Amino acid sequence: MSLASEPVPPSAEDAAASVSLSPLLPADAIEGWDQIKRQMTSLLRRTDPDAAWIGQFDQATQRMQALARRNPDAALYLLLQAAANEVDRYSAHHAMLCALVCELCAAWFEWPDDEVRTLVRAALTMNLSMSATQDALAQQLSPLSEAQRQEIEAHAANSSLLLAAASVADPLWLDVVRQHHDAPHASGETAPPPAERLAQLLHRVDVYTAKLSRRASREPTSPAIAARDACLDAAGLPDAIGATMLRVLGLYPPGCFVRLASEETGVVVRRGSKAHTPIVASLRRSDGGLYLQPVRRDTTSRQHAVVRGVGINEVKVRLHHERVLSVA
Q1: Which residue segment(s) compose the domain that 287 sits in?
Q2: Are residues 57 and 205 in the same domain?
Q3: Considering only CA atoms, which of 254, 259, 296, 257 is closest in space to residue 275?
Q4: Domain match, 125 and 204 both
């Protein structure tokens, strides 16, 4: 079985690991992620983080990781749906989605627990210096101003400086944030240092998830195009990072819309045994009518195989997330 559908082993975060991994009901997942998103939005919009802020941030991060481990597919579904539909809290849900995907990929790579811990925190804070600007840009229709362009160009270094001023003592955290937009060095026999290795993964995840996100100026990109741009090289083949992202997320991650061979349209709710065989909640019948309740479809069946991804505007369905997740 592909690890795209296997449970990801938790990292050794003592506080989070002590949380019970009992089954998580859809309503609890929805409420839990909404609470974490509100808290992260407030934390990431702080312009003067200090040592007290670091403590609050660490507690929120541990709660987020514990919630994700109880149901990674529901986490992906809810965060990808937020990315595709919301623009008012773009910075927070983008950071949270990047952190979740990075942790899943790092688990596949079997990176040390302390590196995974640092990577998650770097993903959440990589845009700390421009969080409010990032939220504004998500709703902006006009081209970037020169001041905005300069802020974007400097945000990696400035975010690292803000964290250092807030008494972050982990040099790897600071380095990954500072390097997350740097061009990778030429590959060779020598493995890249940890900061560069983690920053390379974070950069690719950042690109992939940004393409799946809505902005006022454009619709979300389809998963196939996002995977092509972030996971494949010029020859159309995935490198180590790209292949891992495809294994971990699948071709159609939870939260994405798909068209089935039965001509039904649905939304992915769980990763499947293979990258192209997710579990789908079917929403529209073949005749275009809506199901009163979502219907579970196993896409390993030829009748319900995924034919292609579908854009959110093509579906034209207002999802009831609790009902959708209940069929997973």
Answers
A1: 257-326
A2: yes
A3: 254
A4: yes
Q: Cα dihedral sign for 138, 142, 143, 147?
A: negative
Do residues 180 and 301 share a domain?
A: no
Give the CA distances from residue 41 to residues 37, 62, 84, 139, in Å, rounded to whole numbers and listed in that order: 6, 16, 17, 16
Three-state SS for 212-233 is CCCECCECCCCHHHHHHHHHEC
Amino acid at 139: Q
3-state secondary structure of 310: strand
- Give me the residues of the chain with pLDDT under 50, please: 1-20
CA terminus-to-terminus distance, the chain:
18
Enter the tokens of residue 113.
């627990």
Give residue for tokens 């854009």.
311
Residue-wise pLDDT tens digits, 310-320: 988 888 888 99
CB of 278 closer than 8 Å to CB of 228: no
Q: Answer whether 253's CB lies under 8 Å from 260's CB.
A: no
Residue at 85 is within a domain? yes
The total number of structural domains in the chain stands at 2
Same domain as 239, residue 310: no
Compute the distance between CA of residue 177 and CA of residue 199 in angstroms, rounded to an integer. Answer: 7
Q: Are residues 202 and 84 in the same domain?
A: yes
Give the model's pLDDT for residue 229: 85
Distance CA 257, CA 168 (A): 40
- Closest to 36 in 3D by CA, of 65, 14, 16: 65
Strands (E), the chain: 257-260, 265-270, 279-284, 290-298, 306-310
Its pTM surpasses 0.85: yes
